[in-house]
Amino acid sequence: MPPAGITFTGVRVLAGERQLLEVPDLHLTEQRISVIGPNGGGKSTLLQLMNSLIEPSYGHVSVNGLDTIDAGSDVRQQVGFVFANPAAQLVMPTPLEDVELSLRGRIKNSRERRAAVRDCLEHLGIADLAERSSHEISAGQQQLVALATVVVLKPRLLLLDEPTTLLDRVNAGRFMHTVEQMCTAQQIQIVTATHDLQLAARAQRCLMIEDGAISLDGAPAEVITEYIRRTDHASLPA
Amino acid sequence: MSTVLRRRRPRPLQPRDQVFGQRAPGNSFLHRAPAGLKVTVLAAVALGVMIIREPQLNLAVLAAVIIVSAAARIPAGMLLTLLRRIWLLLAAMLAAQLAFNDLVTGLEVFSRVLAGLFSAHLLILSTTTHELLGVFRALLKPLRLLGVPTGKIVLAALVTLRAIPYLADQFYLAGQQARARGLERSIRARTVPVLLSAVAYARDTGRALCARGIEEIN
């Protein structure tokens, strides 16, 4: 077994001259991790480093022992990513075909592939959406389909970048419940970037990122309390 | 003293224009006919009117469209939405034709365009986007032998198709936002948000496809 978890060593990400993120040393092994912090602080950059959508300018990021630059496509095979905007993640006319598209490379036989897709949709409780039009279903349903397109590949790590920002409370709750149940059952590690502090509190470890650096790292309750204290203080009139 | 209660007339809410999925209800012979056959007939009709250029033929095609759509029980209103949507374009074209051509030629060109457009509209009304895409995929297949990356073309077509209803929504939203600020006449207020959201949408779609490792659709 390769070493499990995500490791950052001496990581710096530069966009031209500007530094977006600096993570000198970080090792993530907890099953559920949340990332909070202000807009533009570097949350998305941190997540995208973990599936090599962004490569570090300096230093190394490795996922389960694989370096994200040397083995970028192997890393992406192990890592699923769900984005905030559900509409932008689906390309096929129906959910069934979209999930099937993910599997094209893995299962050649089209009947087996379709069965695997139906299984996956069933598992997520959205079997009834299989043949509806992808852009007519609600945002909450679209986000569950986007999740299906990713988890059907059985990732070892799931990255969620503000997955519930565009969902109402009920749909957001349903989405996260589905994710957590599945990840516990299948031993998938989850990293969630979010502004929803209740959601962030459900993790086992919480990172706060601001101004391109990890400013707090620890148990969610403490990190979130400190975040609220700091932001309340910052938003008071001078 | 009595006050007369007059019923106020609120500005009617415009239903959002549905760009796709505006398939006519029903399951007639026309709905069930294979999409490939319908596309072939449409191509033949379009080529016919363009090569033969006879007003009688154009009128015959229009009459045939009306008869077939009536037989397939497609609501006349749905067929005519085409005119509502592009009347300005048609009017401009007719004016240009009458200005630069003689009356007979002008009317022939105009009726030819109408014949082509209504035939195509009938195809769209009786066929799902999904079926049309299947035809597109099948048509592209032979090109693969020439080394054309057809999988990438199909993926591009799919992304385009999905982007259109999204952008239509963004246009509507930008219009409402501009109106809320009293800027309904500002082209900038109506277009800049759409451009920005289009770029963000493109970037998000690209990232999502990249994260899923999808480069083409075969």
From TrEMBL, chain A:
InterPro entries xrefs: AAA+_ATPase, ABC_transporter-like_ATP-bd, ABC_transporter-like_CS, ABC_transpr_CbiO/EcfA_su, ECF_ABC_transporter_ATP-bd, P-loop_NTPase
Highest taxon of source: Bacteria
Family: Belongs to the ABC transporter superfamily.
The protein, known as: Biotin transport system ATP-binding protein
Lineage of the species this protein comes from: Bacteria, Bacillati, Actinomycetota, Actinomycetes, Micrococcales
Gene3D superfamilies, A to Z: P-loop containing nucleotide triphosphate hydrolases
Domain spans labelled ABC transporter: 6-236
GO annotations of cellular component type: ATP-binding cassette (ABC) transporter complex
Class of this enzyme: hydrolase
This enzyme's EC code(s): 3.6.3.-
Keyword field: ATP-binding, Hydrolase, Nucleotide-binding, Transport
TrEMBL record, chain B:
Protein name: Biotin transport system permease protein
Membrane topology: Multi-pass membrane protein
Keyword Membrane tagged: yes
One Pfam family named in its UniProt record: CbiQ
Primary location class: membrane
Domain of life: Bacteria
Keywords: Membrane, Transmembrane, Transmembrane helix
Biological source species: Garicola koreensis
Ranges that cross the membrane: 35-53, 59-80, 113-136
Keyword Transmembrane: yes
Localization in the cell: Membrane
Annotated GO CC locations: plasma membrane
